[in-house]
Amino acid sequence: MSDEKKLTLSGRGTLGAGKGVETGKVRQSFSHGRSKPVVVERKRKRTLKKGPGAAADADAATNEQAAPQKTGEAKPAPTGGGRGGAQKPRRPQGGGRGGLTQAEIAARTGALRQAQEEAERRKVEEERRRREEEALRKAREAEQAQAEQEEAAAETEARRRAEEAAKQAAEDKARKAREQEERRKAEEAARLEQESEEARKRTERARAAARAAGTPEAESADSAGARKKKGAKGAAAKKAEAAKASKGRGEEKRRSGKLTVTRALADDDERQRSEAAAKRRERRRRQREIAGDGDKAERKSREVVIPEAITVQELAQRMAEKAPAVIKALMGMGVMATINQTLDQDTAQLVVEEFGHKVKRVSEADVEEGLIGDEDDAGDLRSRAPVVTVMGHVDHGKTSLLDALRKTDVVAGEAGGITQHIGAYQVQLGDGNKITFLDTPGHEAFTQMRQRGAGVTDIVVLVVAADDGIMPQTVEAINHAKAAEVPIIVAINKIDKPGADPTRVRNELLQHELVVEAMGGDIQDVEVSALQGTNLDKLEEAILLQSELLELKANPDRNADGVVIEAKLERGRGPVASLLVRRGTLKVGDVFVAGAEWGRVRALVDERGQQLKSAGPAQPVEVLGLQGTPSAGDDFAVVENEARAREIHEYRQEKLRSKRTTAAPASLESMFSAIREKQATEFPIVVKGDVQGSVEAIVSSLEKIGNEDIRARVLHAAVGGITESDVTLAAASEAIILGFNVRANKQARDAAEQNGVAIQYYAVIYDLIDDMRELMAGQLAPEVREETLGLAEVREVFTAGKRGRAAGCLVLDGKMRAGAKCRILRDDVVVYEGDIASLRRFKDDVREVEAGTECGLMFANFMDVKKGDQIECYVQTEHARQL
Ligand SMILES: Nc1nc2c(ncn2[C@@H]2O[C@H](COP(=O)(O)OP(=O)(O)OP(=O)(O)O)[C@@H](O)[C@H]2O)c(=O)[nH]1
């Protein structure tokens, strides 16, 4: 590119040309940095013959050469046309100045002018662009400056806030210190006042004594007292004044406010705060306001549920309060607690009340609350079928009788269904009445159910074979029925047999305090033959009559509850339970809890294998849909939803687990505590002896022990060793078993251990009676006797500590004793009963304060003591009872 030349379009540059016309390329640079190659044309100088005007032409030619020959940019003369001079045709020689034609000159001049105009235009364009860029840059700079300014403002704001917070904290601290100081001063003043009062009294007493003695000391004592009083008063006044002055100074100081750099800056910040910051602040203020209002609204109506134990954090959350505030409140009560510390229910209650919320105490067992709903209104009750258990001695015909009674069912006869064992069945009589029979006969099953708390039986049918009479298990059955306080109907069976003697049976029953109607008593008896089906209708009539007397009623229109009679796991059907509905109606789809299991009723099947949609009161039914297998004797109840059922299931499973791990000790103590809990007035006993004579002697002696509060109740007394049946009875009635010269067999021992039944062995009747007397006396709560110690009157009430109130009292009578009990009487009405928490004389804790002396009293959990209240101080002593 040797022939490239740098050209400028400023218009000032000299455009040179070589000899003749030569073409070449030059790179053209623009002021804004761009460049591009340009084809240039070089012209050789022409040598012209001298002629007129030659000089001028030469000049003109020289001038012409100065004109740019730029392709595309500087347009050549119209004759030239096309791109660049390279294609330009040679001009015809001659004519015009310096050999150029006029047209050429004009074209060149035009081109020159155009080039100048173009340059001018570009310059303007460049200038415009530069200005635009400049404006843009300035705008950016301004933006940046603005952002920086805002950032700085925010920073300043944050600093100001931090300073403000620090200042506030310092002020709070100072205020607290001042308050503390003021309180201390007030207390000091009160103490001084009290001291001066006492000094005055002492002086008065001295003066009185002096007057009595007739000495002039009275005067001096008087004046000394006055001086002292004046001094004390003066001191108190001075202190109070000083306190006032310091308070005043403090306030003044606060008001004046020293101007510090920080403060000045803070003020400036206030003025300089950006609009965005102001908006942010406003938004935060609104949020705070909303949060504050919400808090207040909630606080008014909040009911805080407190379980048996709760952590500080949990309690704070339930109250919607801050944990530190709760800790502070606890500190105020003298309890130093961390956030994770567990509080007992009482303490938690105090805290909740302190914050002004309502308390709802719950215990773990509350999960079962409401499970067995409320009692029904009398108006909702409808008569229900009685539930009957058949008992009696072996082979007296219990099973035969149950089978015979089953056949009396009119519905079964019509339907002809095959009966199946579901633990109970219901017969419908011709008149529409129904009777439910539990078809596991015998007193063992009966008592086992009772032991589980399922007293489902309304009536016991005692089967006695007319040819055999009363036998040991008949007696047991009688005693079990009596222990359960269930009425008995005697079915004298096998009357078809040749040796049957119903009268003998009736006579023997008398020995067991069962007086049948035929003998003037109120026990119904029916002669039946299970084998031949004789008098079964009469037996059923007797049952219905008894049930009428019992007024057996239930509300069918409610959620069902009742008892599990049997439960098993069946292949293909899953857990199956036979339930006896006690109240309400059990329906398909109901969610229910049975013992520690739960389920949703998938199907209901009766004893004839028929699918039911629902089962009402006293109706036995087999239910499918359980998640697990409950135990016979467990309660069942329909619940509102699955969640509730699961909750109860989990709670009961947990209870079962803990019960398994902590086996019940077979001790007297555990039995007694159970009895005590029930505040029993009866002491149930099962007696087993070696001979009838000793058993009778023991029973009659036991019946003599006792007073109006407690008495022995012999549930069962018989000759023979202690059996499992005895233990079951004792367990069901929470009784003790006494063995006189007899022992328990292995099964009985195991059962006793399992059920926590106490068995005591004796060989001497007197020992047995003495022990029982002592045990029964031990059952009675010790007698509490009260001894009044003294009476005091509240003369003044002071603030003690942060929250406490102390009563300045004068003991009027007897004495006040620290730790003793007291009653606060206001206008002869007891306003508080509790403990004396502290007893002080001046500043010292003392044990006792005698009559005529002043003292300070504080009470446990009571602040509302008032001037004029009377304090009755007393102690309680416990005395063991004797029978
Ligand atoms: N003659 C006569 N025999 C009867 C009558 N009732 C029952 N039996 C018979 O007495 C025997 C015992 O009857 P069960 O019904 O098994 O007596 P149980 O009380 O249930 O006996 P366990 O189940 O062993 O306690 C059977 O052989 C019956 O046939 C009756 O009314 N008359």
UniProtKB/TrEMBL annotation:
<dbReference type="InterPro" id="IPR009000">
    <property type="entry name" value="Transl_B-barrel_sf"/>
</dbReference>
<dbReference type="InterPro" id="IPR044145">
    <property type="entry name" value="IF2_II"/>
</dbReference>
<dbReference type="Pfam" id="PF22042">
    <property type="entry name" value="EF-G_D2"/>
</dbReference>
<feature type="binding site">
    <location>
        <begin position="392"/>
        <end position="399"/>
    </location>
    <ligand>
        <name>GTP</name>
    </ligand>
</feature>
<dbReference type="InterPro" id="IPR013575">
    <property type="entry name" value="IF2_assoc_dom_bac"/>
</dbReference>
<dbReference type="InterPro" id="IPR023115">
    <property type="entry name" value="TIF_IF2_dom3"/>
</dbReference>
<comment type="similarity">
    <text>Belongs to the TRAFAC class translation factor GTPase superfamily. Classic translation factor GTPase family. IF-2 subfamily.</text>
</comment>
<dbReference type="Pfam" id="PF04760">
    <property type="entry name" value="IF2_N"/>
</dbReference>
<dbReference type="GO" id="GO:0005829">
    <property type="term" value="C:cytosol"/>
</dbReference>
<keyword id="KW-0396">Initiation factor</keyword>
<dbReference type="InterPro" id="IPR000178">
    <property type="entry name" value="TF_IF2_bacterial-like"/>
</dbReference>
<dbReference type="InterPro" id="IPR000795">
    <property type="entry name" value="T_Tr_GTP-bd_dom"/>
</dbReference>
<feature type="binding site">
    <location>
        <begin position="493"/>
        <end position="496"/>
    </location>
    <ligand>
        <name>GTP</name>
    </ligand>
</feature>
<keyword id="KW-0648">Protein biosynthesis</keyword>
<keyword id="KW-0963">Cytoplasm</keyword>
<dbReference type="GO" id="GO:0003924">
    <property type="term" value="F:GTPase activity"/>
</dbReference>
<dbReference type="GO" id="GO:0005525">
    <property type="term" value="F:GTP binding"/>
</dbReference>
<feature type="domain" description="Tr-type G">
    <location>
        <begin position="383"/>
        <end position="553"/>
    </location>
</feature>
<dbReference type="InterPro" id="IPR005225">
    <property type="entry name" value="Small_GTP-bd"/>
</dbReference>
<keyword id="KW-0547">Nucleotide-binding</keyword>
<dbReference type="InterPro" id="IPR006847">
    <property type="entry name" value="IF2_N"/>
</dbReference>
<dbReference type="InterPro" id="IPR053905">
    <property type="entry name" value="EF-G-like_DII"/>
</dbReference>
<keyword id="KW-0342">GTP-binding</keyword>
<dbReference type="InterPro" id="IPR027417">
    <property type="entry name" value="P-loop_NTPase"/>
</dbReference>
<protein>
    <recommendedName>
        <fullName>Translation initiation factor IF-2</fullName>
    </recommendedName>
</protein>
<feature type="compositionally biased region" description="Basic and acidic residues">
    <location>
        <begin position="115"/>
        <end position="143"/>
    </location>
</feature>
<dbReference type="Pfam" id="PF08364">
    <property type="entry name" value="IF2_assoc"/>
</dbReference>
<feature type="region of interest" description="Disordered">
    <location>
        <begin position="1"/>
        <end position="301"/>
    </location>
</feature>
<feature type="compositionally biased region" description="Basic and acidic residues">
    <location>
        <begin position="238"/>
        <end position="254"/>
    </location>
</feature>
<comment type="function">
    <text>One of the essential components for the initiation of protein synthesis. Protects formylmethionyl-tRNA from spontaneous hydrolysis and promotes its binding to the 30S ribosomal subunits. Also involved in the hydrolysis of GTP during the formation of the 70S ribosomal complex.</text>
</comment>
<feature type="compositionally biased region" description="Basic and acidic residues">
    <location>
        <begin position="270"/>
        <end position="279"/>
    </location>
</feature>
<feature type="compositionally biased region" description="Basic and acidic residues">
    <location>
        <begin position="156"/>
        <end position="207"/>
    </location>
</feature>
<feature type="compositionally biased region" description="Basic and acidic residues">
    <location>
        <begin position="288"/>
        <end position="301"/>
    </location>
</feature>
<dbReference type="InterPro" id="IPR036925">
    <property type="entry name" value="TIF_IF2_dom3_sf"/>
</dbReference>
<feature type="compositionally biased region" description="Low complexity">
    <location>
        <begin position="209"/>
        <end position="224"/>
    </location>
</feature>
<feature type="binding site">
    <location>
        <begin position="439"/>
        <end position="443"/>
    </location>
    <ligand>
        <name>GTP</name>
    </ligand>
</feature>
<dbReference type="Pfam" id="PF00009">
    <property type="entry name" value="GTP_EFTU"/>
</dbReference>
<dbReference type="InterPro" id="IPR015760">
    <property type="entry name" value="TIF_IF2"/>
</dbReference>
<dbReference type="GO" id="GO:0003743">
    <property type="term" value="F:translation initiation factor activity"/>
</dbReference>
<dbReference type="Pfam" id="PF11987">
    <property type="entry name" value="IF-2"/>
</dbReference>
